[in-house]
Write a structure and sequence with these properties.
With about 500 residues, the chain is of the alpha+beta class. It is built from seven helices and 36 strands. The chain folds into four domains: about 130 residues, Agglutinin, subunit A (Orthogonal Prism); about 140 residues, no CATH class; about 140 residues, no CATH class; about 70 residues, no CATH class. Bound molecules: 2-acetamido-2-deoxy-beta-D-glucopyranose (9 copies). One 2-acetamido-2-deoxy-beta-D-glucopyranose binds next to loops.
Length: about 500
């Protein structure tokens, strides 16, 4: 027994002393199973590993300083190495080649001109191939950040490189034992008003929404602002966002995981308890599941009836709706008139997550007024909004066809104008009118009552006057008029200012 443990310890000591850590890989050097490439600050490490219960070997990057093995990138995700004979080499034309015996398992395919290439793992977790002496990121021959696996690290882009045709998208592992690409991915869905979305295969699973200048449509309360800096870039070459941490020592990552209920999760490493802490995840509630309320329905997680139809719409199938089967959505009570441009109008909604932006058109330099006119001209235009809500709003985005995946948000600031036939607008207008009329009647009654009270008070407290004009301006809030508090306030002002009655 003692001999056995001695052997185990010896083997361990031998193996750890044999572990070879490299800083760079040049053309003449190679990395074989058991060796690692370590980033300059010692944060990340590249080497061979076996995930979970698997015996297969993969070339990957993990945190060197964290005791819980956390792999952030895998080279040969879908093509494992069977034994410990994997070897990574850098060839003279500037490409990485991973071989098992003489079989090529994985390789890079950079077409860029290589001159004395060198492989380096940066402290941010980016594995880069560059010409020796040239550390300009734009000149990298190849970088792992262009080929995300399931993890987005600070400084890494998620979105699209339109010029070089990179889809910077994170894709889940099949299982904790198998890093090959699973069903779920997270990235940019291109359209005029492009948005980020979690996909299940080619189907939408949970929309994060488009960038409106302040936040992603579905996540209005970025509660991490004090820790993270988010940058969103859109131009003709690329559309992406990336995040960085404001605290240098903070270790954080965003992971997509198909074997967890927390599909897209932001983790932060807690050094005290030596444990990854969940900092936020999506889907956050039932309303985040794509299209849960169908067309023209909206989802409100706080309500008992999670799904509701927009004003002027009714469930397409009342029976199904009653059974909480909402996906068939809602239909209009009155058809749009469309033909006569002046007879449709718009209802304004504020605080919604905008509908699916797949069928949208964006006009960056058009005012909201012109946006409305343009929308009315096209019969299939169902809604419009400002594309950027900063500084009072600018830009015009129009939605065509069914409005899908609306969600009522807590703290949403975006306004959406939904097209309605004139008859429906009249209904809501006359409803409003009725409210105003009854309010006026009530206010008048209140005034009369108040006058009577003041009359009484004046008779009792001689020399005290009331600021009457103040009460008139408050007359819309006629409920206040009945309250004793208001009356006291009125008398207090009167006693200090001695204002004359109107
Ligand atoms: C590894 O093993 C699998 C199944 O046993 C086999 O299909 C594959 O070809 C092997 N890979 C190599 C590089 O030999
Ligand atoms: C280097 O590797 C790449 C990818 O396998 C290959 O296309 C290229 O021919 C190799 N260059 C040399 C000099 O072997
Ligand atoms: C690779 O070569 C080693 C040593 O010759 C051998 O043990 C191993 O089975 C080979 N691996 C494969 C997948 O052929
Ligand atoms: C993704 O879609 C497949 C097939 O439609 C389904 O079986 C699976 O449960 C879905 N995954 C998630 C996470 O919803
Ligand atoms: C994904 O979730 C499963 C189950 O919760 C967990 O075991 C696994 O470690 C997670 N994977 C990642 C990369 O976080
Ligand atoms: C919906 O259910 C309620 C009772 O839960 C019932 O009174 C009502 O008639 C139902 N409506 C339809 C359209 O089935
Ligand atoms: C528009 O007018 C044409 C002809 O007058 C009619 O056939 C069509 O149904 C109308 N469209 C709508 C949406 O009312
Ligand atoms: C919008 O206006 C800005 C500045 O006036 C201009 O630079 C930009 O090209 C315009 N965009 C479009 C799509 O016309
Ligand atoms: C309305 O807009 C849609 C989507 O942009 C377009 O396909 C269609 O041709 C437009 N219809 C008219 C009459 O302009």
């Amino acid at each position: 027994m003692a001999i056995l443990s001695f052997i185990v310890i010896l083997a361990y000591l031998l193996s750890s002393s044999l572990a070879i850590e490299l800083d760079y890989i040049h053309v003449s050097k190679s990395l074989s199973d058991g060796m690692t490439l370590v980033s300059q600050g010692g944060t990340f490490e590249l080497g061979f590993f076996s995930p979970g219960k698997s015996q297969n070997r993969y070339l990957g990057i993990w945190y060197k300083k964290i005791p819980v093995q956390t792999v952030v990138w895998v080279a040969n995700r879908a093509n494992p190495i069977n034994g410990s004979s994997g070897i990574l080499t850098l060839n003279s034309t500037g490409n990485l080649v991973l071989k098992e015996n003489e079989t090529i398992i994985w390789n890079t395919a950079s077409q860029k001109q290589a001159k004395n290439p060198v492989l380096e793992l940066l402290d941010g977790g980016n594995l880069v191939l560059r010409n020796d002496g040239d550390s300009n990121p734009k000149a990298y021959l190849w970088q792992s950040f262009d080929y995300p696996c399931d993890t987005q690290l600070p400084g890494m882009k998620t979105g699209r490189d339109l010029q070089n045709d990179f889809d910077w998208r994170v894709t889940s592992w099949k299982s904790p034992d198998d890093p090959s690409p699973g069903d779920l991915s997270y990235g940019l869905v291109l359209s005029d008003y492009a948005e980020f979305s979690i996909m299940n295969g080619t189907k939408k699973f949970c929309r994060i929404g488009p960038w409106n200048g302040l936040y992603f449509g579905g996540v209005p309360n970025m509660k991490y602002e004090y820790i993270y800096e988010l940058s969103y870039v859109t131009n003709k070459d690329e559309i992406f966002y990336s995040f960085s941490t404001k605290i240098d020592s903070l270790i954080t990552r965003v992971v997509i995981n198909q074997t967890s209920e927390h599909v897209l999760t932001q983790y932060v490493w807690d050094d005290k308890v030596q444990h990854w802490k969940l900092f936020g995840s999506l889907p956050a509630d039932v309303c985040d599941y794509y299209g849960c309320c169908g067309a023209f329905g909206y989802c409100s997680a706080a309500d008992t009836h999670v799904c509701q139809c927009l004003k002027g719409f009714s469930p397409k199938s009342p029976k199904a709706w009653n059974l909480s089967i909402w996906t068939q959505g809602c239909i209009r009570n009155e058809p749009l008139s469309c033909n006569v441009t002046s007879s449709d109008g718009f209802l304004k909604y504020t605080g919604f997550k905008e509908p699916d932006t797949q069928h949208t058109r964006l006009f960056e330099n058009i005012t909201l007024e012109d946006c409305e006119v343009l929308c009315l001209k096209n019969c299939s235009c169902m809604a419009y909004a400002n594309s950027d809500i900063r500084e009072g709003g600018r830009g015009c985005v129009m939605w065509f066809g069914d409005l899908i995946d609306l969600k009522l948000l807590q703290g949403g600031k975006q306004s959406l104008y939904i097209r309605m036939p004139a008859s429906e607008l009249e209904i809501s207008r006359s409803h409003k009118k009725k409210v105003i009329i009854s309010a006026t009647i009530a206010a008048t009654c209140g005034m009369l009552l108040l006058c009577y009270v003041i009359y009484k008070v004046r008779r009792n407290i001689a020399g005290n006057y009331c600021l009457f004009s103040h009460i008139i301006s408050k007359s819309q809030h006629f409920l206040y008029m009945y309250s004793i508090a208001e009356l006291k306030f009125c008398l207090n002002i009167a006693s200090s200012q001695k204002t004359i009655l109107v």
